[in-house]
Amino acid sequence: YDSGRDGYIDLMELKLMMEKLGAPQTHLGLKNMIKEVDEDFDGKLSFREFLLIFHKAAAGELEEDSGLLTLAKLSEIDVSIEGVKGAKNFFEAKVQALSSASKFEAEIKAEQDERKREEEERKHRRAAFRELKTVFTQ
Question: Where are the coiled-coil regions (predicted)?
Answer without folding.
Answer: 101-128
